[in-house]
Amino acid sequence: MEFSGLKAQYNCMSEEMKQAVCQVLEDGQYILGPQVKRLEERLCEYTGRKYCLGVSSGTDALLLALLSEGIGPGDCVFTTAFSFFATAEVIALAGAQPVFVDINPLTYNIDPYCLSHAIKRVDREGLLRPRAVIAVDIFGLPADYEKIEEICAAAGLVLIEDAAQSFGASIGSRKCCSFGSYAATSFFPSKPLGCYGDGGAVFCDDATLYERLCSLRVHGQGQHKYHNLRVGLNARLDEMQAAILNIKLDHFAHELTLRRQVAEAYSKRLSGYFKLPAVPTGLTCAFAQYTIAGRDTPQRDYLKAGLEQAGIPCHVYYPVPLHMQPAFQGLTYHAMPNALEASGRVLSLPMHPYLTIEEQDAVCTQLLRLLDEEKRPE
Ligand SMILES: *Cc1c(COP(=O)(O)O)cnc(C)c1O
User: What is the dihedral of CA 348, 352, 357, 359, to 10 degrees?
Assistant: First the structure.
């Protein structure tokens, strides 16, 4: 059984893929060409954003947003304590300090109430200049942007959406990648929309920001290649990956429907036995992951071992909250009980559009069997 279904997906699209890749080879343009341009236009249309830049990864997409705002030493950026490391890493790479914020235990996303408190605390301490918030749509579920946008506006902070896991999700009629001044997504192979290497995109609605991002994407270039206005990155998306993404985008809406069907089937079978993914009213989820939670860490570890023994792949995203990562020791932080508890309880199950009914059934049957065996003495 596959965890993220890349082989099954390739089998469905292999002819189209081979043709698209060969076409790029024959066309002879390999970096930022017509495929990237077409992809950017299609991604704008899909998300409702004015501007999109194909870039080298989700990490670079986030970093470009911070560099575009000139965020650096002396600044701080607020972000969730429960995410992939890259979310916080880019803040430190830019020279600023991450200030971690606890999560809502139901959605696993940044808690707006805790965010307000953290902003007030930093203001009171007066040591760091608050600049931005990076909100993450963890596991594919949009963060609470209604409240977060309000908080950012009131505090004069730039909002950046980390939509690495949420391409395709929405709040009402607004798609993920459309929140904040900037949004970043990732095309890492196992993300909902993935390429066959590294890739990502940054989105914005403002022409000035867009121009700055374009410059930063290519070494801070100005009018021409050998005229540099600022210090930037090499953060370009290549044509091969864009051609692959253009094919995958044709299939994306259908795949998203299938993902949601898998999630629904899991929820139906597992309801009442585990803490399940919550999708608040008005939101849709991209189900990058389907993440359940055990009662406590021993039970989670028991379930994980039991699934693996039965040949069912599963993963813990994420076992260590960001504020407890060794790389961030030395930063003072406040207790983040919800993030810590989530790390101890979560378990992500196989989730992809090509997961068969039989496979879904096998996962659920094994989980319920493990619960049953746990109850029996010895
Ligand atoms: C995957 C991911 C990233 C980084 O994306 P890459 O393309 O791997 O650089 C950033 N944030 C989150 C939440 C992610 O899941």
Answer: -50
Contact assessment for residue 35 and residue 24, using Cβ atoms and an 8 Å cutoff:
yes
Residues 246-302 have pLDDT tens digits of: 999 999 999 999 999 999 999 999 999 999 999 999 999 999 999 999 999 999 999
The ligand 1 atom at the shortest distance from the C-alpha of residue 188 is 7
Tell which residue, 95, 205, 72, 85, has the closest CA to residue 136: 85
Q: For residues 8 and 14, what is the distance between their CA atoms, to the nearest angstrom?
A: 10
Atom number, ligand 1, closest to the C-alpha of residue 198: 7
This prediction's pTM:
0.97
Alpha carbon of 372 to ligand 1 centroid (Å): 37
pLDDT band of residue 377 (cuts 50, 70, 90) is: low
Residues with CB under 6 A from ligand 1: 57-59, 83-84, 86-87, 136, 162, 164-165, 186, 188, 198, 200
